[in-house]
Design goal:
heterodimer; A: alpha/beta; four-stranded antiparallel sheet; B: alpha/beta; FAD/NAD(P)-binding domain; five-stranded parallel sheet; about 20% strand; disordered N terminus
Chain lengths: ~500, ~500
């Protein structure tokens, strides 16, 4: 029996350490600041183990029975700890509360294990041997677990399945103990049934681990996901809550159907309505067709060219009924030509000229996107402007990313364009900014298309006024060889998220 | 917050799915651009067949690297057409050669030119001709894009190659002190590009000791500093600081202004410049023409390549100088021309490894290699999934002879494993990313500025352009950089033109 008993100790020690590592890892992943997370999780866990050890003195009768129940509880709580923590993060506000509560409960249970086992076996060995053997195998188990965790478990199984797997080990130890200590146990069958139930639950969890991860992911987006696809270029997610449709590209919100008209009317009309007789328009980005919808309100416009990288995106917005309703089937207009191409090389090689150019790219979150906000790019775009033409650039938030907004404006100026920055309030985005630019002075439009929901000629005037907290700040221009905007943007958003 | 969470979850599910499909690597490739077989015919003084035909041409340029093409560029600009370029390889370019596959063009050797200072008048003239410099403004398509250089050290990344993390107070003080010393050398006006403008005997004692000894004599013992100096010498000269003249080591740092915007680079590296030059003078280039005999006389130069004998009035020797004793009649053995063996590999990647955004130039501290350059870095595209990395390895440890032997005796698989091993220390999944590794072995990749080389009499003598055989290669300067090769090429062309037109030189 001796060696079997000590293997049991080794296994439960491994389980105990794994749960602690999982809690620390998930906390670091989800909240960041890994030093703090690991430090506090380990500290709390060890303290709770101390509490468990202290409490062990109050358990007097039926030690083996109690040990088995503790193993089962640990199996369930520890086994599902990954899943519970992820769901807590996805669905609740109180992730940290759940985290430390679980760490305390698991710590107390783990803290009970060794003292109980030592007492269970105390009559078979001398005190000296009990302490030596139990602690030896306890530490050995810890070593094994600490090596297994980063090398095999996390990369091969992932966190959800690793936890479930070790839950199974705990449950296995419980079941095993009903045989190991069969002679000292009463109501063995009841215990064994409980063990099998726990094993079944954990097995079910393992079989559905992928679904668990996916469900947790779903709830990064606040609402029901009605469409999700990984295209060659990006992760497209569409969510809906009641009448509110939201598009996320690589988890960045692109629009909410409730207020996108504010964004798209402001993107298009201040510029396009000020051009006497616009005939051709270029849209760079904007595969959702919402900007095109606004442009189609100008009957004089004969030709619209939409350049979007992702064919999946333009296909989705030309075919999905809910989306074509939103963009008024704009992508199916005979006046529109869709080109699926990378914008910068396309702009470089194409020679057409346009009266109005809409530059509507995702925010400059990385160096690749940052290229589309450089002097080199704006110079290339400006070559396509007709003599009366303007271009408009979606320029992130002048409120939350004030430096970035004015950096974009400065970059356009550096590309020898006159700039006319403006901003608008879009509830789902907050204050949002645009820069209109051209080679000549800008005059406010005297007429706007009929049927706009947000803009009229009076409102347009107000967009160009910046209150002091969004007023211009001196910024350098964004160049291909410095990409100051990417760092600026990162800092801007870091400042508000902390 | 949101990004972290998503990244974490998607990475988690990727780990669940991706690793189960992990399969054995399938990486193809071979040695490419081999030229030593031909070269060894010369070395071993094998007999060549007698020439079958004779061509009369006023000027022959031997070698179609940057120096030869630059001589031709000067001829072209002066309207002089009566010359030919004889190139041994099947493609011109020398150390500015390039390759191309379905993913991108990529360099086989030099991959950038620093923004030239005001002294580099010929480089500036060329760059204006090529549209790189216009109205005093550098074309921003050709200035290296951000992010530029990064160094992997102590298990993390830093921007820039000069070690900046993990420095102790002592290291910082030494870096500062060395920078101050370099600034003084810079201000002396002796360390210029091209070398010839400032070179004098003033710092001759620096050419008499190794860079390593000089650094020690000045009290520089900081480990990161010494690593960085070694890296610089391996990168520019293919040699360790112990094998490099202190004069040359200092030149690397004291010859250029600290520039913010450069360097200039292209997907195919300096191959881009070769391409542009070939557009102008390509019709004068004969490839696959190995010159095996050059006979200079008082009246002209006979050049034999393959089965053709060229009778010329002048010849410009733009091939590496170490070849001269083997092919030029009566040419003495060289004493101060050492060369560094190199290996360049181009790796085709089907996807990018890891999480970090790619940089232009990536270096690993304490690696024997020089790291790699990303050929698609200068692409204007926002979405890049496949790329080519050019991996540089100056075989600087051990003697050049030992390393040449190693290059000759090992097979492609040996180097494939060595390269992947090096990359794998940082990019764990590199074997799953790479589909092809082409490797170019170069026994004499570049001249090495050993102790005493820069100011050697031999160099002074070869730089005189008074014979009918005019030497023109960066070898003459003792350091192998684009600017020197171009300078000597242009100078030699001007000297030849002057003498052809009868001026007394």
């Amino acid at each position: 029996m001796g060696i079997l008993l000590f293997i049991t100790i080794l296994l439960i020690a491994a389980c105990g350490l794994i749960y602690e590592l999982i809690a620390g890892t998930i906390a670091s992943y989800l909240i960041g600041d890994s030093v703090f997370q690991f430090s506090t999780v380990i500290g709390t866990y060890l303290f709770a183990m101390g509490v468990g050890s202290a409490l062990s003195r109050y358990l007097n009768r039926g030690l083996i029975q109690r040990f088995i129940w503790i193993e089962l509880m640990l199996g369930v709580i520890g086994g599902f700890s990954s899943a519970i923590l992820m769901f807590a993060f996805a669905f609740t506000q109180g992730f940290q509360l759940v985290l430390y509560a679980m760490v305390v409960v698991m710590g107390v249970l783990v803290g009970l294990e060794i003292p109980l086992l030592m007492r269970i076996v105390k009559d078979r060995y001398s005190f000296r041997d009990v302490v030596a053997h139990v602690l030896t195998f306890d530490y050995l188990g810890a070593l094994g677990a600490s090596l297994l965790f980063p090398i095999i478990l996390v990369p091969r199984l992932g966190l959800v399945r690793s936890a479930l797997f070790f839950g199974l080990v705990n449950a296995g130890v419980a079941l095993w103990s009903t045989y190991l200590f069969a002679l000292q146990l009463v109501r063995k069958m009841q215990l064994r049934v409980a063990c099998l139930l726990v094993v079944g639950a954990l097995g079910f969890g393992i079989a559905n681990a992928k679904k668990i991860t996916a469900t947790a992911e779903d709830n990064i987006y606040a609402d029901e996901i009605i469409f999700a696809r990984d295209t060659h270029y990006q992760h497209i997610v569409l969510t809906r809550f009641k009448d509110d449709l939201r598009l996320f590209l690589n988890s960045h919100l692109q629009f909410s159907s409730r207020d996108e008209y504010r964004y798209h009317e402001s993107l298009i009309h201040p510029g396009l309505a000020s051009i006497p007789a616009p005939r051709s328009v270029l849209v760079l980005g904007g595969g959702d067709g919402l900007a095109v919808r606004e442009i189609l309100k100008y009957p004089q416009v004969e030709k619209i060219t939409l350049v979007d990288l992702d064919p999946e995106m333009t296909r989705l917005f030309s075919t999905q009924p809910m989306l074509t309703e939103l963009n008024k089937r704009s992508l199916l207009s005979p006046r529109l030509k869709v080109v699926n191409a990378d914008a910068f090389p396309w702009v470089d090689s194409n020679t057409d000229s346009f009266d109005f150019i809409v530059v509507d790219f995702p925010d400059p979150t990385n160096y690749a996107l940052g290229k589309l906000y450089t002097t080199a790019f704006y110079r290339a775009v400006a070559r396509h402007l007709s003599s009366q033409g303007y271009l408009v650039v979606q320029s992130t938030s002048p409120m939350f990313a004030r430096d970035s907004f004015w950096c974009i404006a400065e970059t356009l100026r550096e590309a020898n364009l006159q700039t006319f920055p403006y901003h608008v309030y879009v509830p789902s985005f907050g204050e949002w900014g645009f820069v209109l630019a051209g080679t000549h002075e800008y005059a406010l439009p005297r007429f706007l298309p009929v049927g706009l929901r947000f803009l009229d000629t009076k409102v347009v005037q107000t967009l160009f006024q910046f209150p002091p907290d969004m007023a211009q700040v001196p910024m350098p221009a964004n160049q291909l060889n410095n990409q100051v905007l990417v760092r600026t943007y990162e800092n801007d958003w870091k400042d508000i998220s902390h | 917050m949101r990004i972290n969470r998503r990244r974490f979850l998607s990475a988690g599910s990727a780990a669940l799915i991706g690793l189960s499909l992990k399969s054995g690597e399938r990486i193809s490739g071979s040695f490419v651009n081999e030229s030593f077989a031909a070269g060894h015919l010369l070395r071993d003084r094998q007999p060549f067949p007698a020439p079958k035909k004779t061509v009369k041409v006023p000027v022959v340029i031997i070698g179609g690297g940057i120096s030869g093409l630059s001589a031709a560029w000067r001829f072209h600009k002066r309207g002089f057409q009566d010359y030919l370029i004889l190139e041994m390889n099947d493609k011109a370019g020398g150390n500015a050669r390039w390759g191309e596959n379905e993913v991108t063009a990529y360099p086989w050797a030099a991959h950038y030119v620093p923004v030239p200072g005001s002294g580099s008048t010929y480089v500036r003239e060329l760059f204006m001709d090529l549209g790189i410099l216009k109205d005093g403004i550098w074309n921003d398509r050709y200035l290296v894009f951000a992010p530029q250089e990064r160094l992997f050290l102590y298990g993390r990344w830093q921007d820039g190659i000069e070690p900046a993390v993990g420095l102790k107070q002592k290291d910082r003080e030494q870096f500062q002190k060395l920078e101050d010393l370099f600034e003084r050398f810079r201000a002396s006006g002796e360390f210029t590009i091209p070398l010839e403008l400032g070179l004098s005997q003033k710092f001759v004692q620096l050419d008499q000791i190794s860079f390593s000894d000089w650094l020690s004599s000045q009290g520089f013992d900081s480990r990161p500093l010494r690593w960085y100096m070694n890296y610089a010498c391996r990168d520019d000269y293919g040699a360790l600081t112990t094998e490099t003249s202190a004069w040359a080591g200092i030149h690397y740092f004291a010859s250029r202004e600290a520039e913010e915007k450069g360097p200039l680079t292209w997907p195919e590296g300096n191959g881009w410049i070769t391409r542009r030059l070939l557009e102008l003078v390509g019709d004068k280039v004969l490839t696959g023409q190995m010159v095996h005999k050059v006979v200079p006389t008082r009246h002209g130069v006979t050049v034999v390549a393959g089965e053709t004998q060229y009778e010329s009035e002048f010849a410009i020797f733009s091939a590496p100088t170490f070849v001269a004793p083997y092919i030029v009649d009566g040419f003495p053995a060289l004493r101060t021309f050492a060369y560094s063996p190199w290996l360049t590999a181009n790796l085709t990647l089907e996807r990018l490894p890891g999480e970090i955004e790619p940089s232009w130039d990536t270096v690993f501290m304490d690696s024997p290699t020089l790291g790699y350059v990303d050929a698609t870095h200068q692409s204007l595209r926002t979405h890049i999934d496949r790329t080519v990395w050019t991996f540089y390895w100056a075989l600087a440890d051990g003697t050049p002879a030992q390393n040449r032997n190693l290059l000759l005796q090992t097979d492609w698989n040996y180097w494939r494993q060595a390269i992947l091993h090096d990359l794998e220390r940082v990019h764990k999944d590199i074997r799953q990313c790479v589909s092809r590794i082409d490797i170019m072995r170069m026994g004499h990749a570049m001249v090495r500025p050993t102790v005493g080389a820069i100011l050697s009499e031999e160099r002074v003598r070869l730089k005189q352009r008074t014979n009918r055989l005019v030497f023109a290669n960066s070898d003459l300067s003792g350091i192998s950089i684009f600017e020197e090769a171009q300078f000597h090429g242009v100078q030699s062309a001007q000297a030849v033109l002057a003498r052809l037109s009868g001026s007394p030189f």
